[in-house]
Each structure stands twice: as C-alpha cells, then as structure tokens.
Design a protein that fits this description.
The protein is built from 4 helices and 4 strands, in the order H-E-H-H-E-E-H-E. The protein is about 30% helix and about 20% strand. The chain has 2 domains: about 1-35 and about 70-120, Peptidase S8 propeptide/proteinase inhibitor I9 (Alpha-Beta Plaits, 2-Layer Sandwich); about 40-65, no CATH class. By secondary structure, the chain is α+β, with helices and mostly antiparallel strands. The protein is elongated.
C-alpha cells in the first residue's frame, strides 16, 4: 500500500511539473524485467543505502532484498540515449517515468530489459 501511494504521489508531482510539455511528447512508465544483477548474489546494502538507513533497518529487523538495489543504470542510459527525458525512477518498482514521443517509444520498446511501457494519461 505504501509503495503504491509513493508511486502515485511521485507521479502526481512529476506530472504537475510537466504542464508545458508538447502535445506530441507524453509521459510513460517504463517497467524493467529485472535489476540486471545476479539475484542469487549477496546484497551489500552499503553500496545502495546510507549508514543511517542501514542502522534503522537493522534496528527494526527489516531485511535487505532486491528492492534495495537501484534501477540498473545501463537500462536508464539506454532509454535516455534513445531521446527520452528521464523524470524519475523507483528502485522499489524497478521502473522509470519518462517523457517521450511515439517514435522514441517505438525505438525502446523492443529492448529485452523492458517488460512494459504504460502511458500515464489523465493523472490529475
């Protein structure tokens, strides 16, 4: 529930900042298939989280898992190099929110790292 609320709030704030976007450019959520790392490998939280966050999670007995790993930078770079404007990313949902034209969406949609591209329409 908290994750869904966080995504909705993030989407709302991003969308409100996009009032002046062109009519051809739209906002999309790009969902990735994985984090691009070996899922069996041990997770080293110090690579991804602050010392304070690690201490808090240890104190509250919250396990570290794949959702702690950031979105794969190579995946994000691929989308950005195709011409999309990356607005935000979510390590929990393993996705990014972008602004792109239909041509750019067509360019990136064949990438094996992308599982789904959804139009963010009527966010308000």
């Amino acid at each position: 529930m908290k994750k869904t609320l966080l995504l909705l709030l993030s989407t709302f704030f991003v969308s409100s900042a996009l009032v002046a976007q062109s009519s051809e450019t739209k906002t999309y959520v790009v969902q990735f298939v994985n984090k691009g790392v070996n899922t069996d490998a041990a997770i080293n939280p110090s690579l991804y989280l602050t010392d304070k966050a690690i201490e808090r999670r240890l104190k509250q007995h919250i396990a570290f898992d794949q959702t702690d790993i950031p979105v794969n930078e190579e995946y994000v770079s691929f989308v950005a190099k195709a011409g999309a404007r990356v607005l935000t990313r979510s390590r929990w949902f393993n996705n990014i929110v972008i602004q792109a034209s239909p041509d750019i969406i067509a360019k990136i949609s064949g990438n094996q790292a992308i599982s789904e591209i959804s139009l963010l329409d009527n966010v308000f």
